[in-house]
Each structure stands twice: as C-alpha cells, then as structure tokens.
Q: What sequence folds into this?
C-alpha cells in the first residue's frame, strides 16, 4: 500500500518568513495530493491540492509543487502569519477503492513566532 | 449543506463497555472513511465504506472493531469492550462517487476510556 513520509515534524519560523514542508510517497500510481491544516482540537481542513498532471499550484500565500519522477511534493507558505500556526498534513491517494483512499503523512507542527 | 455530521462530539466509556460512533456524510456523498488520531499523532486510516459495502478495512483492528454504512441512516463505527488504548479522536470523512477532490472531515468524536 501507499506510504507517505513527511518532514520536518516541527517547524518554527518568524512572522513574515516562508515555511516549506516536504513529503514523499511510495505508490507511483498516486495521482492526487492534498494538504490539510488542523488547528488544535479541530477537524482537518483541506487547504490546497494538486493532481499529477500539473507540477505546481498556487493559491494566494500557499503553493504546492509536485515532482512525479522523484515522488515528492512540497507545501510552501509565504509571508507567514500567526494564524498559520497549526499542524499540516500531506496525503496521497492510492489504487485501493478506485483511488479514493488517502494515506496521510505524520504531520508538521508549524509555529509562527512574532 | 450541513457538512459531515458526527456524534457524539465527546464520549466517555468505562473499560469493557461498547462505544458507538455515528457519521452522516455530506449530502450527495456516498463514500465514507473513518480515521483514528491518537493524541499528538497523525491520521491513521481505519475503513472505507460505500452504502451497504465495505471497500477497504485494512486499517481496522482484527478484534472488537466493526463498521457499517447501511442503506438508510448514518455510518456506524462500533468498538466493543473498549480499553484505555482506544482513547483517541475518531474522524469521519466523506466524498462523492465521482470527481474526487479529497475529503470533507467531520468534527470528530473524542473517545475517552476510563
């Protein structure tokens, strides 16, 4: 089955700096890669996703890049703000169930310091 | 659209009791997924269901855990004879039959076994 690794596990940045979180996946058949943000005590919420037919996608201050050959993808947050502090999870789908099952990385605790 | 509804939000059970967690998917969604999140850990896949059908239960413990998604009514995750190690947040997510764009998660049920 799919295996997703995520680094780093914790990340501290100064407000206004950029943050980068990286993930690798094992199943070359994976074609959908979402990122979720989870604030303390709340549900994970989808913030951006990318499909395997594109290499980069951007939405305001967040962007995701995908390298299919190397089987890794990254989340980039620019001009970080205190409200960006949360746990971020990457995920990848797999062949099981027609590609609808997501395997999640272990999460990155992002802390944006004033 | 009320989103994915989970209840109860909090559930306390004594060791040996049964826990029943309910999940109603978003309107128009026919796929349901259950994930478990231990304190300060990631989202671990448990089971993927469609109406009256289990698609993938590879993440379910072999004993004490079962799940169903009947033709009518919510999906149910049942844990029999709970133990302290079952204490966790259990998240349900749903997705449509086609045009998969990731999950919408419910608010979760936080199970505490005392």
A:
């Amino acid at each position: 089955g799919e295996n997703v690794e995520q680094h780093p596990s914790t990340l501290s940045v100064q407000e206004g700096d950029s943050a980068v979180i990286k993930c690798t996946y094992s199943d070359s058949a994976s074609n959908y890669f979402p990122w979720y943000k989870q604030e303390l005590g709340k549900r994970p919420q989808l913030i951006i996703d990318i499909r395997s037919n594109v290499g980069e996608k951007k939405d305001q201050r967040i962007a995701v890049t995908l390298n299919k050959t190397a089987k890794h993808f990254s989340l980039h947050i620019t001009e970080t703000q205190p409200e960006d502090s949360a746990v971020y999870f990457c995920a990848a789908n797999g062949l099981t169930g027609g590609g609808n099952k997501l395997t999640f990385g272990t999460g990155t605790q992002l802390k944006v310091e004033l | 659209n009320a989103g994915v509804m989970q209840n109860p939000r909090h559930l306390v059970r004594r060791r040996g009791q049964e826990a029943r967690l309910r999940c109603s998917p978003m309107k128009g969604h026919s796929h349901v997924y259950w994930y478990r999140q231990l304190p300060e850990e990631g989202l671990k896949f448990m089971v993927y269901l469609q109406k009256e059908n289990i698609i993938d239960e590879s993440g379910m413990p072999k004993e004490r855990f079962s799940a169903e998604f009947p033709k009518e009514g919510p999906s149910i995750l049942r844990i029999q004879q709970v133990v302290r190690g079952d204490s966790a947040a259990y998240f349900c997510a749903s997705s449509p039959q086609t045009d998969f764009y990731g999950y919408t998660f419910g608010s979760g049920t936080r199970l505490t076994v005392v």
Summary: Chain A has a mean pLDDT of 93. Chain A touches chain B through 24 residues (CB under 8 Å).
